[in-house]
């Protein structure tokens, strides 16, 4: 792959630091389904959609981050396309206070993490997504009401992901506090935090900008179903 590792970030992750979670060993790869649908191909190597079709069964869905809108071949049905911002925290300005109930999440918390993600829809969150990095959460009256963690890792960068809060607990500063804790761990490893957010999600973008994130590039999020 040529260019900056963040330009084709899913491919970078699956061919470097997270190769252990990858399916495929040619010009297309995807995270194992238990982790999520994120998939990628080497933009410099011929027909990536054709290569991707060899590792995705018919009827299954994947998600791609592409540099621009493109038309896939007949093996694919487009489910959704949206502009996706990639943001990077060049300067650490995260300073939210950590609530006393902020906890590191583990295997025993996984069912609640999956349920919270299903309710709030921060992005794909499957049975093994938690294995991608450190996750932190906040509980109220014993119930998990907010969480944030890490997803993609490429050389020098780690993605902040799964930023979500139960609708009954919005406005308490939990997202900022959890992001600050996750960012602290990334910075302590000498890495730079990044994240991805739909361009239409203005509320989230405002929070991320307050925490020091700036817009790097706009990608095309394409959700596809394998057909035929």
Radius of gyration: 17 Å
Strand content: 35-45%
Total number of beta strands: 11
How many discrete domains? 2
CATH class of the largest domain: Alpha Beta
Distance between the termini: 30 Å
Give the fraction of residues assigned to helices: 10-25%
Q: Which structural class best describes the helix and strand composition?
A: alpha+beta
Written overview of the protein:
- With 228 residues, this protein is of the alpha+beta class.
- The chain has 2 domains: 9-85 and 220-226, Gcn5-related N-acetyltransferase (GNAT) (Aminopeptidase, 3-Layer(aba) Sandwich); 87-216, 3-Layer(aba) Sandwich (Aminopeptidase), CATH 3.40.630.30.
- 21% of the residues lie in helices and 36% in strands.
- It has 5 helices and 11 strands.
- The protein has helices spanning 9-15, 48-53, 110-120, 174-188, 202-210, and strands at residues 22-23, 28-31, 38-41, 61-66, 76-89, 102-104, 135-140, 143-154, 157-165, 192-198, 213-226.
- The protein has an 11-stranded mixed β-sheet.
